[in-house]
Design a protein that fits this description.
By secondary structure, the protein is α/β, with parallel strands linked by helices. It contains 9 helices and 7 strands. The protein folds into 2 domains: about 160 residues, Periplasmic binding protein-like II (D-Maltodextrin-Binding Protein, domain 2, 3-Layer(aba) Sandwich), CATH 3.40.190; about 35 residues, no CATH class. It has a 5-stranded mixed β-sheet with strand order 4-3-5-2-6, with helices on both faces.
């Protein structure tokens, strides 16, 4: 059963964008990310652009967002993938952009996990990419401190438009249990999927609910 779903999105600090003299709108392309991030840093911000979970957000999802192969065998849909394609023309272009951004000071690498969310939540970062599930956390962290908004992932010119990749988790039931145990599992799943609990879960975590009613 699906339990929590998310996908990466772009966040931007409206206050830092305004301070840099930029229009109140998210960057639509990577060229705009670079241009805006440079101006945000130039206006005194500690961080122009950063991300959480960079391998997921900036490599796996960027390949999907630009309809580029991430692995062989149609990204694993035609069989068990054994080779990543991240060293292809698109992947190399992304890494070159990030390496240059780090050298020039408009891109901040915050490790392979969610560490960058603390910088965004502290109001230090102008542009940030993370899971849509970060909405709840950023709402709490920014309350009374700064304003922010969201946008779609930036697109790299010269490549087709694809889709982002869903993240999250599902719940599985294993074989070999007793009938009465499966009845208990069914009741537990029903409890988790209830409108009330899904609405609470989505509000607290930021993950998408698994029902339209929630």
């Amino acid at each position: 059963m699906a339990f929590n779903s998310s996908t990466p999105i772009l966040y931007y600090n409206k206050d830092l964008v305004k301070k840099a003299g930029l229009p109140d709108k998210p960057p639509a392309t990577w060229a705009e990310v670079e241009s805006m991030a440079k101006k945000i840093v130039g206006a005194g911000a500690k961080c122009g652009f950063s991300t959480a979970w960079p391998s997921w957000a900036l490599m796996e999802n960027m390949h999907g967002w630009h309809d580029q192969p991430f692995a062989d065998k149609s990204n694993g849909f035609d069989g068990l993938a054994t080779t990543l394609r991240i060293n292809g023309p698109f992947g190399v272009k992304v890494m070159e952009l990030l390496a240059r951004g780090s050298k020039e000071g408009w891109y901040t690498y915050n490790g392979r996990g969610p560490k960058g969310e603390a910088n965004m939540g502290a109001g230090e970062c102008g542009i940030f990419i993370s899971s849509s599930a970060y909405i709840a956390g950023l709402t709490r962290a920014s309350e009374g401190k700064f304003t922010w908004a969201t946008g779609s992932l930036p697109h790299m010119e010269g490549f087709p438009q694809g889709n982002s990749i869903i993240g999250g988790a599902t719940l599985w039931v294993m074989k070999g249990a007793k009938p009465e145990e499966y009845k208990g599992v069914a009741q537990f799943f029903k409890y988790l999927a209830s409108t009330e609990n899904q609405a609470w879960w989505a509000g607290v975590t930021g993950y998408l609910p698994i029902s339209n009613a929630a």
